[in-house]
Structures are given as C-alpha cells and as structure tokens.
Specification:
The chain is of the alpha/beta class. It has a single domain (9-222), classed as Metallo-dependent phosphatases (Purple Acid Phosphatase, chain A, domain 2), CATH 3.60.21. It has helices spanning 42-62, 78-82, 127-134, 170-179, and strands spanning 9-12, 26-32, 66-72, 94-96, 100-104, 107-112, 115-116, 124-125, 143-146, 156-158, 164-166, 183-186, 194-198, 201-205, 220-222. The strands form four sheets. Strands 5-6-9-12-14-13 form a six-stranded mixed β-sheet, with no helix packed on it.
Length: 223
C-alpha cells in the first residue's frame, strides 16, 4: 500500500443479481464484475440492469457495513458498455472504475472490465486488443481489480463433461509481471474460486457462484 495501513478489504464477484450473501464489516468492498442480472442480449438487458441497480443494488449496498466500495463491470454487464453513468451515480462512497485508477484510504487501485472474447458477451476483446488495454495499467498500484483472470491462474471453465478450457488472458500475465501489484482480484471463472500467492503477488478469484450459477461461496477478506 502507499503507506502503512490496517484495512479490512472484502472481495466479491459474479453474483449475477443475487444479493443473499453476507458482507462482514470492512473498510473497503471490492466488486470484480458481473454483479448484474443479464440476458444474452445487450439491449434486452439494459432496462433490466438499470432497474436492478437503482431498485435492488443501491438500497442493498446502503445497508452493508462497508465504508467505501470500488467496483468494475464484467462480461454480463451490458449497461457498462451502453452508459456507465448509472454506475457512477450509485453513491458518494461508491467508486466505479473503467480503465481508471483511484486511491482510496491510501490504497492505489486500478480497475478494468475487459476479458477475452467469450460467447459474444460485453467487454470482450481479442488478445491483441487486450494488450493495448493492459498497457495502460500503471506501475506501483496496490490492487489490480479486473474481471478477467490471468492465463492459467484460477481461469478454467468446465463443460458438462468436465472438460475445461482456460479463459484468462496471457497478455495480462505479462503486464502483471511488469507492474507487480500486491493483489490481483478478479472473477469470471466461476469454478475457480480461491486465492494463491505466486512470486509475492496474491491472486484472488472471488466468484460467489459456481458453474451452475448457484450462489454458494463466501466473500474473501484480505488485510
């Protein structure tokens, strides 16, 4: 962190419109995308997502024992592609990032919603395009908040036969090796919930749903 702090940070991702999980008291809540319910269509999803943000999420978040919130979109968050101003109006202590950096409570955070092309969902990019987005991630940040996992780190998705494929970004690994954040917080791969420290960087997949879209996991807390 930019200076010595003793902060409790809660990490969540991929709850897709379900708000039945419990948030423990924390200084900062990080949401790594796919918070919204969605249809597999950008414009059919727009009104659904606007209504959910305003009538479900905003009142829910006000009741949570958190001091500040930082969030990004994910591949189901069509509204972020259409008009991200709705996310910026949730509340004064709610910070939306879309390829942006912010310092909160002495903690430098960079947030980005993009991921490799996947079933034609939102914020999907070719690997070549992703390289350009990742190149904007600055050095000396404390937390990289992204929806996309790095390649081969908590990034497997499984089909009904148990066969997996990696949905992370290899070029993200390369950028992480250069910028060296303390934490990389992400979601997207529902079946890969967990945390691991590799070469002094902690990687956290905080997806709350499993591959069947059951809400069955708990938020992950870091200090």
């Amino acid at each position: 962190m930019t200076k010595k702090t003793n902060k409790t940070i809660t990490c969540i991702s991929d709850f897709h419109g379900l708000l039945t999980f419990k948030i423990e008291p924390c200084d900062l809540l990080l949401i790594a995308g796919d918070l919204l319910p969605a249809y597999h269509d950008k414009f059919l999803s727009a009104n659904l997502q606007i209504n959910w943000l305003q009538n479900e999420f905003k009142p829910w978040l006000k009741k949570q024992p958190v001091k500040e919130t930082c969030l990004i979109c994910g591949n189901h968050c069509w509204l972020g592609e259409i008009d991200n101003s709705y996310f910026r109006k949730i509340g004064k202590k709610v910070h939306y990032l879309q390829d942006e950096e912010i310092t909160i409570q002495g903690i430098r955070i960079y947030g980005t919603p993009h991921s490799p092309e996947f079933n034609n969902w939102a914020f999907g990019k070719t690997e070549k395009s992703l390289e350009k987005y990742w190149s904007n991630i600055p050095e000396n940040i404390d937390i990289l908040l992204c929806h996309c996992p790095p390649f081969n780190i908590f990034d497997k998705t499984y089909n009904s036969n148990g066969i997996y494929r990696n949905i992370g970004s290899p070029s993200l690994n390369k950028r992480i090796d250069i910028i060296r954040p303390k934490y990389v917080v992400f979601g997207h791969a529902h079946g890969e919930y967990g945390r691991i420290k590799i070469d002094n960087i902690e990687y956290i997949n905080c997806s709350l749903m499993n591959e069947l879209y059951d809400l069955c996991k708990k938020p992950i807390t870091i200090q």
